[in-house]
Each structure stands twice: as structure tokens, then as C-alpha cells.
Amino acid sequence: MISVKEAKNIILNATQDFGVEEIPFLKSIGRILKEEIVADRDFPPFNRVSMDGIAIDYASFKNGQRAFNIEGIQAAGSPQITLQNNENCIEVMTGAVLPKNANAVIRYEDVVIENGIAQILIDTIKDFQNIHQKGKDRVEGDVLIHQNTIITAAEIGVLATVGKSTVKVAKLPKVMIVSTGDELVGVDETPLEHQIRRSNVFTLVSLLEKLNIPSETDHITDDKPILKQKIKTYLAHYDVLLFSGAVSKGKFDFLPEVFEELGVEKCFHKVAQRPGKPFWFGQTDYCKIFAFPGNPNSTFVNCLAYFYPWYYKAMGLNVKIESAYLDSDVMFKPNLVYFLQVKLKYNSGNLYAVPIQGNGSGDLASLVNADAFIQLPQTEQSLFKKGESFSLIRFR
Fold this sequence. Notes:
Layout: H1 4-12, E1 20-24, E2 37-38, E3 48-49, E4 53-56, H2 58-62, E5 67-74, E6 88-92, E7 104-107, E8 111-114, E9 117-120, E10 131-132, E11 143-145, H3 153-161, E12 166-170, E13 175-180, E14 184-185, E15 196-197, H4 200-209, E16 215-220, H5 224-237, E17 240-244, H6 255-261, E18 265-269, E19 273-274, E20 280-283, E21 288-292, H7 296-315, E22 323-326, E23 330-331, E24 337-347, E25 350-355, E26 372-376, E27 383-384, E28 389-394
Parallel strand pairs: 5-6, 13-16, 13-17, 14-15, 17-21, 19-24, 22-25
Antiparallel strand pairs: 1-12, 2-11, 3-10, 4-6, 4-7, 5-9, 8-9, 18-20, 20-21, 22-28, 23-27, 24-25, 24-26, 26-28
Helix pairs in contact: 1-7, 4-7, 5-6
């Protein structure tokens, strides 16, 4: 049995680069950017009017002029026109190019227009007011989005602005999620007294969807020849296999010996943690295998604690580790890392973790009352005191 730290290091050292693909920018939400996006011109690309109103030569106002003949209209999207007489003005619309020879915009609310003359009602204006000056945000060649950014709606807008109709993103691993066990039946079936519905596989599907990773699923009964035949096929066709169940000491827990017979390199089996102690991890030249224990909370926390960091590193992401203060004392005697379910709350700007009382790793229902797991370290002590800070694994 190895420590949580050792297990995580082994997994992180087993990451791989899945390459890059170019996809339509509107399909890139949630994907990992694999190129730098630079400004193809200044932002904004011209002196941009930011209020509907009139554009004037500031010097005329400074010299005491308050009434201006309207010389023309500068609409948004139309070519730039020129203020021919610096004692006149031009009506301008938000988003329009600032007319040549104009250097201040007074909004309509501050003028009265009658008979083609705009009378300014305020006594003070500023040079270049209500004008978004060319290049103020960014200049041509500036990096707008850095590589390894997770693409959100904000990035989509920038991609459109610079004309990136397609974008380079990290390829995603091809993943198969497998549940095992004769006691499991389909979601839409009515289980017998000795059966339960499949749930772990769909938890894993959802956890991967949160990372925008598509996956396929299968269920295999506790039949060793069938397990071996199917897993052999999956090893050849998928980058990652996620299993739930059949890795403990039960008579029908065949996965470890099936992996061995198929030539899978075992990196470790059993981690000093609760829940999820029987966790098995291995690899071939082309496939990584995460075999989680079958209890629901074990599958859930192991995916978050191990598969997520593996994926982040494979994609080139640096993810900040959060921490929180215990809201109450916690007693835990085994010398293991304890992934404790907690509800999160803020108090005076600090994040606190309120322990959730569950009924062991099989208590799936308790997860709906929690927001995260707080990771209490492996230690000889049995009391973790209120106010002590520990790292968090959020799932809300």
C-alpha cells in the first residue's frame, strides 16, 4: 500500500500528450487552447465614438463657443467623414468612427438641437471625452489569449473579433468507462431485492463531461473470460479506461489478475486513504487504466483526486489548489488520508468546511448534501481541530 502523495506522483508521471486539432471556434467552449491569439489590429481599430451625440473641435468650446451648426452625420459602420469647419459639429452615433478634425463628443442629453443648430447645455467638457481612443485596449501584435487557456464565452468573443473562425485546441483522450458486477441492473429496470441500479458509471460520465471529455460506457458481468476478452479490445482502442468495481479482495474481483494476464503494467494497487483504499492504476504503451473501488463515494473521490489532476497535466493546465478551515473538530483514528465530505460556507471572507456525517463509502445519497472533500493528512494524530486549514477537492 502506498501513500496518496506517491500514488498521485506516479499518475502525474504517466501523463501523455494527445496532440492538437483545429476545430470551428464555436465548437471550442471548454476546450484547451493550444495557440496564442494575437491582435490582428489595434483595439479599438479607430477612434471610436462611445456616446450618441455631437462631435466638435474642443478648441472651439474652450474659446467659449456653445452653439454649433450641424454639418453632417457620422453613422456607425460608415466611412470616416471630416469636420470641414471647426466651428460646426457632426452628429455621431455610438460605435462610429470619430470624424476627422473632431476631438470631443457631447452626448445628446447635454445638447438641444433646433433648426440644424446644436446648443451645448453644460459648462465643462474634456478633450477627447466620450471617445474610445485607437489602440487603448490593445495594439496590433499583443497577445490577447495565452496558450493553455480554457476557452469560455469571453474567449469566443475575442476569437470572433480577430477573425479566428477555426482554433487549435488540445485533443481529448478517447475514454471508455466500465462498470462490473452481477448485482447491477440498468437505470430503467426494477431491481430485485438483491440488486441495485448502475450509478457509478453515470457519475463518472458526468464528471468527465464537466471536463468536456466525451466517453463511452459498458457493463461487464463477473465472468472472467468475458472480462478478459472485452478489456483486451478496449486496451487496443482507447487512451483511457475507467473502471468501477472488481478491484478489492472479493472472490469475483477479477480485474487485477485480468490486467496481469493481458500484460498491463501495474503501477500500484491500494492507497493509504479512505474512502477508496483498493484503487488500482496501471498502463500499457498506449492506454492508462484507472480502476476505482466500486463503492460510490470511492469512485467519486478517486476520479476527482487522481483522474482530474492527470487530465489537467496532460492538457498543460495549472490548476490552483484550494484550501478551507475546518468548521468543527473531526476525529479520525486510522493512519490514512481521509477525504471527508464537507459543505462549504464563507465567514468574514474566509472559506470554512462543515463536515457532513455520512454512512461510509457506500452512502451515495450523502454526496448531494456536500460541496467538496477536504483532505485530512495521513498522521498518527486522531484529532483535527476546528480552524485548521486543509486542501479541498471541490465538486460544486
